[in-house]
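== Item description ==
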Amino acid sequence: MLAAWSAGMAAGQTAENVLVVVNQSSPVSRHIAEYYIHQRSIPLVNVCRIKTTTGEKISRAVYENEIERPIAAFLKSHGFAEKILYIATTLGVPLKIEGPGAELATEAAAVDSELTLVYSKLKGRQFGLAGLVPNPFYRRMGARFVHPQFGIYLVTRLAGYDFVDVKAMIDRSMVARNRGKFVIDLKPGSGDGANDWLREAARALPADRVVLDDSAEVLYNQHDVIGYAGWGSNDRNRKQRWPGFKWLPGAIATEFVSTDGRTFARPPDSWNITTWEDKAHLFAGSPQTLTADYIHEGASGCSGHVYEPYLTATPQPQYLLPAYYGGRNLAESYYLSIPGLSWQNIVVGDPLCRIGKPEERDHR
């Protein structure tokens, strides 16, 4: 099976295939873009500069007029629609779009998830605003990601709490290696099937590279972590904001948490995860764990959700972790695991980050 995944990595993983989106109104966006294009040798012509608000939350009209249309026009005018496979947005580009509706019929969505559809829109396709659009790349483990077979862009975000966090994340991505442990932490008593996804992920990886825990205890303070999947703050036994992991360069994380990507504003150091009933201690409207905390602690990539995605639309670790282990880059690994687009999902990290072929286990 890993041979099939490796065959899918044959093309499309170069700097030529990345479009970097910069918000000219944001100094940190410009700073991140400058650093990233230098480190990854992204062609200067692949930098799309937009000008919009630096706020995280925007209306649909602002998204369409100040983000999507300028990016689409840039791709079209440069003849880049086919060449670009990955779009890297930057901290300072708006994060989420407000919208009417509720539950699975809401028009609210993540900016990055909406941008995945720009390729198909350039080809004349139209999409409704409510609900999610099925991801054509989902579970296509042996397929090479190319256009026009897959009429989407894979969008990731170069973001953290500040430039220092993002610079460190990029630096780690440049020296990623395939070693270390995949930490998989189940939530006892969960009958919704997601624990089965975690077990399936563990079975798909080499047994000596997996730490699988299905006890009532939460796994803290793990060392040499290259991948993590679990329930985050949705495990009631988790009481600490920080997992306390020692992450290896290139490490990725995912969790079944509804609002972990809600903001990249940094909480006070004294803030801790809590419960929805503890309204006095919510941060950015939620008590839940934060995607940016994993990046700050040392992960090189992490998924998140700007609003409630519902469990069935979260990244599924049984596709994410084996794809990444098998050599897929970060962008492809995450999008292989995400069922829907135009939805609440974000992926944080360098799209080109990959850990390469497995190495001998480090026993030191």
About this structure: The chain has ten helices and 15 strands. Residues 1-8, 360-364 have pLDDT under 50 and may be disordered. The longest strand covers residues 247-255. The chain has two domains: 2-157, 176-349.
